[in-house]
Amino acid sequence: MKLLKVLLTLALVLLTEISAVHSQHRGDEICETLPSQIHLIKEEYDELGRLQRTCNGEVQVNKCEGMCNSQVQPSVITPTGFLKECYCCRESFLRERLVTLTHCYDPDGGRLTGAEDSSMDIRLREPAECKCLKCGDFSR
C-alpha cells in the first residue's frame, strides 16, 4: 500500500512537470537567421597537387543564432531513468549561392591581375531559414 502511494505521488509529480514544461516549451525560444561576414580563403591546386593560386575575400553569409528550449524529465520507460528532449537553433533550409573572391595570389604571394586568374567563383551553402529542431536529427 505504501509503495502504491509513492507511485501515485510520483505519477502526479510527473504529470505536473510534463504539463509545466509543455506549457512553456515553445514560449521563450528565439532562433533567427542573421547576416554575418566571414573571411573566406580558397586554394586551387593542379593535377599534381601543386598550389596554383590562393584567393580570398570578405563574404556576407547567413548564420543561425538563438536559443531553444530543451528539457529533462524523470521517466520509468527509459534505461537512464530520464527522458531528454534537446532542441538546437539550426538551419531548416539551405540555399546554394555563387560567391566571387577577388583577391588572388600566386604561390609566391604575388597578386594575380590577369582576367582569368584574378578572381575565383565558389559555390557555398548557407542557411536560408533557421528553426529550433531536435538536436542530432540530420535525417533531412
Automatic annotation (TrEMBL):
GO cellular component, one term: bursicon neuropeptide hormone complex
InterPro entries cross-referenced by the UniProt entry: Bursicon_suB, Cystine-knot_cytokine
Highest taxon of source: Eukaryota
GO molecular function, one term: G protein-coupled receptor binding
UniProt-listed GO biological process terms: G protein-coupled receptor signaling pathway
Keywords tagged on the record: Signal
Cleavable signal peptide: 1-23
Name recorded for this polypeptide: Partner of bursicon
